[in-house]
Amino acid sequence: MTAPIAVIVGTLGAQGSSVLSALLENQPHYKIRALTSNATSPDAIRLANSNPKVEVLQTDLSSPNSLLEAFTGASIIFANTVFRPDVFLSQGAAAAEELEASHGLNIVHAASKVASTLQHFIWSTLPDAEGITAGKYKIPHFQSKIPAERYLLDPANGLVDKTTFLRVGMYGSNLVRDPYKPSFVEEQVKYIMTLPCSPSARIPFVGSETPNIGLIVDAIIRQPGKTMGKYVLGVSEHLTAGGWAAALSAASNVDVAFLETSLEDYERRWGPIGTEIGLMFKLIEELGQGSFTAGVHASLIVTPEDLGVQGLLHSSEDRLREFRWEEILG
């Protein structure tokens, strides 16, 4: 009997690698088709040699034919696209949004052509901030996910009843890089984490992205009756902005405090990335704890608790403990 095929788009990224690990451990009956943009990279070669059940396949997300070939015969597809930082920095947010949106549409178009074998399509997405707020907040790295989501929701395209929409919360590990990383302030003799939101703003976190995303996706696949046609909240916890700083203090044994700043000051400090990230935090603060379920009817929302995996998920503090903070902070 031929093994069913599970395809992972972006296997070497944070989300894809987490899904790969979970499927190999928990669903060994699947053959994994691991898609990457460069099958000759050291990581891709290492993966190809690591397990006979994993086939590494180089795929061009800008090529519909390349994706159709990769999806042919698939039973399960997990798809996650990337808001490319190189394009963002060199060409601007609009160009990065357009590129990611085109990749997403190519993916879902190709998936619709393998509907005869496809049993479950999982689309990693984010809230439609612009639609939810009637244009008040346009966050390009959120909006770049939405054209594919709209295609999937259209019954005419034949995928809505086979699709689970996974809204993944923020990574606890984002604090290792700018513009999130704390800075040392000599006058206060401590590290300060600065964001354009109040200390009490409740932020949705996936927690430790590895293994949490994979654990949630594994549960999605195991429970199609609960998850097809639904939105799964990829969130293990809601931390306040101040609580995120406290989690870093606990994980690093370094005194870290949170300081609220204005969006304007944040933009002046960080430029275009400050606008991108700053608007995201303003949206989260305004919508409150429901920011990542906004715009979706309550009957369509599934939580990790509903899937029985909440107790297995690792916190953001767990993830932060994995880093060498004396090197990161200097």
UniProtKB/TrEMBL annotation:
* Pfam families with a match to the protein in the record: NmrA (PF05368)
Q: Which family does it belong to?
A: Belongs to the NmrA-type oxidoreductase family.
> What keywords would UniProt list here?
NADP, Oxidoreductase
Q: Which residue numbers delimit the NmrA-like domain? A: 5-289
Could you identify this protein by its name?
A: NmrA-like domain-containing protein
